[in-house]
Design brief:
The protein is α+β, with helices and mostly antiparallel strands. Helices cover 36% and strands 24% of the residues. The protein contains 12 helices and 16 strands. The protein has helices spanning 4-13, 15-22, 69-76, 81-92, 102-107, 110-123, 131-138, 229-238, 250-254, 273-288, 303-320, 325-331; strands at 27-29, 32-35, 46-49, 58-60, 66-67, 125-126, 150-160, 163-175, 181-190, 195-196, 203-207, 214-216, 222-226, 244-246, 264-268, 292-296. The strands form 3 sheets. Strands 6, 7, 8, 9, 10 and 11 form a 6-stranded antiparallel beta sheet that branches. It is globular.
Length: 338
Amino acid sequence: MPSIADLSRRLADQAEAVCRTYLSNGRRSGGYWIVGDIQNTPGRSLFVRLYGERAGRWADAATDQCGDLLDLIAAARDLSLADACAEATRFLSLPPLFPVPSATRASSSPAASHMAARRLFDAARPIAGTLAEAYLRGRGLALPPDLTALRFHPACRYRDGPSLQHWPALLAAVTDNDGILTGVQRTYLDPEATTKAPLADPRRALGHLYGHAVRFHAVIDTLAAGEGVETQLALATVMPALPLAACLSAGCLAGLVFPPSLRRLYIACDNDPPGYRAATRLRDRGRAAGLDVRLLWPAAKDFNDDLRQLGRTGLAQRLARQLVPDDAARFLLFPAAV
């Protein structure tokens, strides 16, 4: 009978297979498996590292739970430690379901993934006049003239098991507070319909996302943080000078690293349970750090939906009721001007 430490190490070697078995409602995104929570709820709050020295380690940004894959099996199946060890032993006796060659593991190290993200973003071009711009405009989004965080790649690789495809993609640069690129999100696009590509996983991430964000404008003292790029660009449509951060998921939103100069944080919430949990977790962290934190709530699921349903005037009116009056005067294009 292997020791608990041996079981944990052997599970980490099969991290993706473990996740596909016990967290089947999640999906792989770069070097992580992402799911809603330890009960296998669909969503994006719980992250499991798939490769590298910390393979198998997981954390739920909405609840602060964390552990290794043995803990995950125990919690997912509501087992005692002894029963979880027996379940893990049974699982590991199977032939490898998703073997990962050693060369792939080496190339998935944090440094290598950062370099790959940098190369991918450098190979892309500005989005003006491209399918990526058409996709965003189709969602009612007016793009800032100095937009540098987004680019377009005409033939970005998409691997689905043994199949390798190429699709046009909108690329979003993920950076830390010093402006260093740490990752890239790819949104694969359908060139015929100007929508997301008809893929099982049309969004994928590369590199290190947690704690970082896609950023629009440098932070002086105020920031609005939210989940999706489209959500934040909707805010930019009526508040073009407000610094914005798109964290790309509920889990990453909850773990955002605060810029040193930040004094007031607005959280652009997604109107669903994972969005609420992430927003309240970030709110509590911000207030503990001495920040003035305010939640912005959309009428629909997110602010891009609000923009499309209410128009710019309606969205501006809704935000005017939620902003600090000084910030409304400072940032908001008032209804008469939109």
